Amino acid sequence: xxxxxxxxxxxxxxxxxxxxxxxxxxxxxxxxxxxxxxxxxxxxxxxxxxxxxxxxxxxxxxxxxxxxxxxxxxxxxxxxxxxxxxxxxxxxxxxxxxxxxxxxxxxxxxxxxxxxxxxxxxxxxxxxxxxxxxxxxxxxxxxxxxxxxxxxxxxxxxxxxxxxxxxxxxxxxxxxxxxxxxxxxxxxxxxxxxxxxxxxxxxxxxxxxxxxxxxxxxxxxxxxxxxxxx
Length: 230
Known about the structure:
This protein is an alpha/beta fold. The chain has a single domain, classed as Rossmann fold, CATH 3.40.50. 47% of the residues lie in helices and 9% in strands. The protein has seven helices and four strands; from the N terminus they run E-H-E-H-E-H-E-H-H-H-H. It has a four-stranded parallel β-sheet with strand order 2-1-3-4, with helices on both faces. Helix 1 packs across helix 6 and helix 5 (149-161) packs antiparallel against helix 6. The chain is globular and about 45 Å long. The chain starts with 26 loop residues before the first strand and ends with a helix.
């Protein structure tokens, strides 16, 4: 009897295909950066709890970590399921096009075929307040996007400057692209004030500290398990 040896490597030789099983939504945002996704969810919660103008309806929102969509088959399943009701898609791609080329190109083709607004944005570090440096961008991502250059510029600013107000206005702009035009009435340009940027930077620092704290706790627990209580 001979055993059949199967090669378990995946198409990218690192990850296995996964059906995320996420329900579809009108607004879909993908990012490698957890603070982007959490910021949008918090903004959505604040907007739902707060007052809204006449005719303003907040579309449904689905956020997804790109770390779970590295395998081509995972991307294909995601396009078939989670994007079924999408009316606006935004991707913030840390590392540029080469870090998610298959996904970006397939998503762009899908959005063009279905006439869905798509903004592919760079995911580089946020600028410092008052520095006057231009926002980072990637011409290849701009070419794959289906929204106008001005819309991309505004969305890019909202995410790069970060902060609560910018995330809310990013959602308003995305909602207007999805057909909720009344949301555009209160949408502003990206806020560059130090307070908004400080909020975003504080969130990143807090996240890093929590991760370091978790590592220290895990190390102490392992030491206690090996050596016993003193």
